[in-house]
Automatic annotation (TrEMBL):
Protein known as: Putative periplasmic ligand-binding sensor protein
Organism, scientific name: Thiocapsa marina 5811
Organism phylogeny: Bacteria, Pseudomonadati, Pseudomonadota, Gammaproteobacteria, Chromatiales
Record-annotated membrane-spanning stretches: 6-25, 322-341
Keywords: Membrane, Transmembrane, Transmembrane helix
Length: 352
């Protein structure tokens, strides 16, 4: 092969390889923004009927996402700021900055409701002044003078436990049988002034808590909390969602922080919980998220929806910048073609 033909073959070969590389590069999961018609901060995400998603906004409105678009939802909020929603309005109580929206009479004073939880024994409402429980057709106050933020229900070894995360006072807990009795502090192993911001429960019933100082697990109610390695102990955890076990038996724990969305795969046995693999992070597709990830929910087709100021969907997308490989490949093909024409000029035609 002559040097000229080599000079033609090299850019053409490299060009074809770059085009193939750009098309075959594996994709990765990234957060893609699902734009609401109204640009406003999302305060709550909740599951709706028939696989839809409900999003409450800072403007005091409620929107429904059906997988393709958004529609406003009438929920009788009258502009009130939603802080807690567990499901369909009308079927579930709504906690707002100015009280409870429900068929029930509100708690005395109609306080700010930071979270709600419906149990077999009554409705729980978390407030900055403590806990209210609606049972036996009246409101009870088993925990007072404690600023509550989040509530959780845990099923462990055939028993049901209830937990309240506080701002600055750790975790308080009670069994469902002692729901109306004073709740006990359940913060051994946590810092004295820790903020408990979110909960998750594993498949085997182990409790996880996200705090302003990292992520912790508790083997059984009342036992010592232990940090969940390798999660950084200085990172604030705003949201948790534990996915069902996969084919390998691993449970993926989705974690929302000020830095975005991350995940750990957990391996659980009857006696303990361990981390299987490194901490993974998931970036937004184009520009960083507006705020930290504060809500995480499963979506149809094995996808995930999160709120981080706006609403985002976690989806598999092409490798960022894949088109650059294709463009470079096309440019090299053109160069090779130009060199080939130089080696094979069009013969002059005889004038006859």
């Amino acid at each position: 092969m002559t040097l000229g033909r080599i000079a033609v073959a090299v850019p053409i070969s490299i060009g074809l390889a770059l085009i193939a590389l750009g098309c075959l590069l594996p994709g990765e999961e990234r957060l893609i923004r699902e734009n609401l018609p109204l640009e406003t901060h999302i305060t709550v995400l909740a599951p709706g009927a028939d696989g839809t998603l409900l999003a409450a906004t800072q403007a005091g409105e409620l929107w429904r996402f059906d997988g393709t678009g958004w529609e406003p939802e009438e929920a009788g909020l009258d502009g009130r700021l939603v802080l807690a929603l567990r499901g369909e309005p009308g079927e579930h109580a709504i906690g707002t900055a100015s009280g409870l929206v429900s068929d029930l009479a509100p708690p005395p004073g109609n306080p700010r409701i930071s979270d709600v939880l419906e149990t077999a024994s009554g409705l729980l409402a978390a407030t900055p002044e403590g806990l209210w429980v609606h049972a036996d057709a009246t409101w009870h106050r088993p925990l007072s003078d404690v600023p509550l933020y989040r509530l959780a229900e845990q099923h462990r070894e055939g028993r049901v436990y209830l937990h309240a995360g506080t701002i600055g006072k750790g975790v308080y807990s009670a069994s469902i049988q002692t729901l109306l009795s004073p709740w006990a502090s359940n913060s051994r192993g946590l810092a004295d002034d820790v903020k408990a911001l979110c909960f998750a429960v594993t498949e085997g019933g182990m409790l996880l808590v996200g705090t302003d100082r990292g992520l912790y697990r508790q083997a059984a109610p009342g036992e010592t909390w232990k940090a969940l390695a390798p999660f950084p102990p200085d990172r604030r955890v705003l949201a948790l969602y534990r996915a069902p076990p996969d084919a390998r038996g691993l449970q993926r724990l989705w974690i929302g922080t000020d830095d975005g969305l991350s995940a750990l795969d957990l391996a659980e046995t009857r006696d303990g919980l361990s981390v299987a693999g490194p901490l993974r992070s998931f970036d937004a597709l184009w520009e960083p998220t507006e705020t930290g990830v504060s809500w995480i929910l499963p979506a149809p087709d094995d996808e995930l929806m999160v709120s981080a100021g706006a609403v985002y969907r976690l989806s598999a997308v092409r490798y960022p910048g894949w088109y650059r490989f294709v463009l470079a490949g096309i440019l090299l093909l053109l160069v090779g073609g130009w060199l080939w024409l130089g080696l094979n000029p069009e013969p002059d035609r005889d004038d006859t």
